[in-house]
Design a protein that fits this description.
The chain is 28% helix and 2% strand. It contains 4 helices and 2 strands; from the N terminus they run E-E-H-H-H-H. The chain has a two-stranded antiparallel ribbon.
Length: 162
């Protein structure tokens, strides 16, 4: 007979294992007729405790759709923020000349320079003028406060501020 606890071979008529001292019959179950220890195959613990979690297919579809939507919303928000930064939407509206540093605004009228205006600006002198005032230099610039020509959008030389 084989002890169910330690696996040692013991006498058939004994009630306790001579090696580990465990009882050989418990709750009416008799362990007397067991197979030989050398021929017995022991199953792996994973075979006894295999846990199968079944997640419905619609959950995977829902998660993948939500991940895709959140990815595209993130890309859209980043694109909009970069456009706001590039186009200066909601930025400051300058009404007076600023000669301190290149800021992307005309030194004469305060209008935001376009990309082509920024290409034509004089980097040596630091002048920034829009296409209407490109022939001026910063010493000819007058104060633009209370200038009706700038408010009306008329930038012809006859309507310059005095």
């Amino acid at each position: 007979m084989i002890c169910p606890k330690c696996g040692e071979e013991i006498d058939d008529d004994s009630n306790f294992c001579s090696y580990c001292k465990s009882p050989l019959s418990a709750d009416g179950i008799n362990f007397a007729n067991k197979t030989d220890h050398n021929n017995k195959e022991f199953p792996l613990p994973s075979q006894y405790y295999e846990i199968k979690i079944k997640i419905p297919r619609h959950v995977f579809q829902l998660v993948s759709i939500l991940a895709g939507v959140s990815f595209y919303v993130t890309i859209l928000l980043l694109g909009m923020l970069s456009l706001v930064g590039l186009l200066n939407i909601g930025g400051p509206n300058y009404k007076t000349a600023d000669f301190s540093s290149p800021d992307g605004y005309c030194d004469y009228c305060g209008k935001k320079l376009s990309f082509s205006d920024m290409l034509f600006q004089s980097t040596k002198r630091g002048d920034e003028f829009c296409r209407h005032h490109r022939g001026y230099n910063k010493f000819q610039v007058k104060s633009t406060e209370n200038c009706s020509a700038i408010i009306d959008g008329d930038f012809t030389p006859q309507s310059q501020c005095k």
